[in-house]
Amino acid sequence: MFVPVFHGAISTLLGIVMLVFSEFDFVIKYFFVVMSTLVVLAVFNGLCLLPVLLTIIGPEPELVPLDGSCRLPAPPPLSEQYKKKAAFGIENGLRHRKGADVEMSAKKVRSEDNNDSPKKL
After folding, report:
1. 92 and which of 14, 30, 88, 116 could share a cystine (Cβ 3.0–4.6 Å)?
2. Which residue windows are transmembrane per the record (predicted)?
3. Contact present, 97 and 89 (Cβ < 8 Å)
4. CA 60, 66, 69, 73: dihedral to nearest 10 degrees?
5. What is the DSSP string of 15-29?
6. Are 28 and 16 within 8 A, CB to CB?
């Protein structure tokens, strides 16, 4: 999240830098200085101050390990994840997953089990 905010701040500052070359002092004083100060304060607030404050006084994390430890396990390296996908292919990798890895599953309804269909007499 750091990079998009930083790019937005840099592009805004580049956009208002042309005001420095204005012939009118009030444009430099009121527009350039105020806008650049606001951008710098907003970047400091969004990237430094708020994350630290929310870490200190914010809510508890939503993900809690099942074993009761205070840290989540590290994910496997990307090279291992790509090996698994390459071995099965994307479709086969999704079809041959273990039941514990799948968040939701749906039962397949057979047409003869469906009682809502009209019956012929």
Report:
1. 88
2. 6-24, 31-57
3. no
4. -100
5. HHGGGGG-S-HHIII
6. no
